Amino acid sequence: MGPTPHARREFRVVSTVGPQSLTPEFLRLTLELGQPFLRLNASHLEPAALTHHLEVIGRTSAELQVSLDLQGGKRRIGVLQEPLVLVGGKAVTVALGPVAPRGDLPLPDPELFAAAQAGDVLVLADGQVRLRVVAAHRGHLQTEVEKGTSVRSQAGVHLEGRALPGCRLDPVQAAQLALARQHAVPCLALSYVEAAADVEALCAYTTALDYRPRIAAKIERPNAVAAVAGIAAVADEVWLCRGDLGALVPLRDLGRIQAEVIAAAAGSRVPCLVAGQVFQHLTFHAEPTRSEVVHLHDIRARGVAGVVLSDETAVGVDPQRALRQVVGLL
To answer: Which member of 19, 99, 135, 323 has the greatest number of CB atoms within 10 A?
Structure first.
């Protein structure tokens, strides 16, 4: 006999809704399995697309519980007409602005651009690309590719070893928050939190809108790890996001950091969810790896309140099968 819906609800499985899973069939399956928890990644949803997603979800069932994942202080490159292939050892120009000449990388972030100096390293796409700054000029950076691959529009970017201001709500995020309020989205997940002040700033913003959702603080920067106790004290829950974090810290430290974040959340009596390649194998395969199964058992034993599935349900070959597999392990 499988676990009862009540038992399953004690441990949350949050499904990221994407091109493969924005269907009534998948959404109804989350209800059937007792896991009506959905994540919408606002970084990839303009207001019109977000409205469509929320309306589809709302028409399916009022019981579905959405967490809107805000970009927060996450910084991104600009728009590329097509993926740009970066080859190790080659030079590439990073141009200030939302678009750039063919072959260059656009960076619409004056703050990050102004901070970059010769010798700094720009890290893109969760660590898949590393660009060392050779020279900083007005309007462009000359860089050399230390590690390369194909880069797509609006890939994440950060300046290695530099702490820049965190929570910044641009006009797009302000519009997304207005939609979240309109559709009574119960939870906001704030990306790239640096300190407790980022969470408090978002709380103040939503309170001014007469909107009081739960706030999940995403821990995905070294500064956030160092400040996790203070962050957990002001957030409603904590999400340990190992994708971006794994690109910023030595891999050997990731296990220790996970244990520290789980302990900090427990100390503040707030739920902790784990995200980032939790069941990555299920994105393209029918069954999880043995390692993924054992990892789930371990984090549950440590008191983790749930997991967040990303590619597994957003773009995987069979989101319904993936979700059934994970819930079947509870």
So the answer is: 323
Asked whether residue 169 falls in the same domain as residue 143, the answer is: no
Is residue 245 within 8 Å of 276, Cβ to Cβ? yes
State pLDDT tens for residues 220-240.
Answer: 989 899 999 999 999 999 999
Assigned domain for 65 exists: yes
Q: Which helix (H) or strand (E) holds 272?
A: strand 272-275
Query: Is the pLDDT assigned to residue 293 strictly greater than 80?
Result: yes
- Does 195 lie in the same domain as 294? yes
Task: For residue 213, give the 3-state DSSP assignment.
Answer: coil
- β-bridge partners, 309: 15
Strands 129-137 and 121-124: antiparallel
Number of structural domains (the chain) is 2
Alpha-carbon gap, residue 58 to 68, rounded angstroms: 14
Q: What is the residue-wise DSSP string for 168-184?
A: ---HHHHHHHHHHHHTT
> Model confidence over 19-29: pLDDT tens digits?
999 999 999 99
Name every residue whose Cβ is closer than 8 Å to that of residue 282 and which is 6 or more positions away in sequence: 288, 292, 312, 316, 321, 322, 325, 326
Distance CA 53, CA 66 (A): 10
Same domain, 240 and 111: no
Residue 79: inside a domain, yes or no?
A: no
Instruction: Tell whether 112 and 205 lie within a shared domain.
Output: no
Local confidence band at 294 (pLDDT 50, 70, 90 cut-offs): very high
Q: Mean pLDDT, the chain, as a whole number?
A: 92
CATH of residue 235's domain is 3.20.20.60
Instruction: From 270, 272, 237, select the one nearest 257 (Cα to Cα).
Output: 272
Pair 134, 15 in one domain: no
What mean pLDDT do residues 111-120 have? 90
- 158 vs 97: CA distance, rounded Å: 16
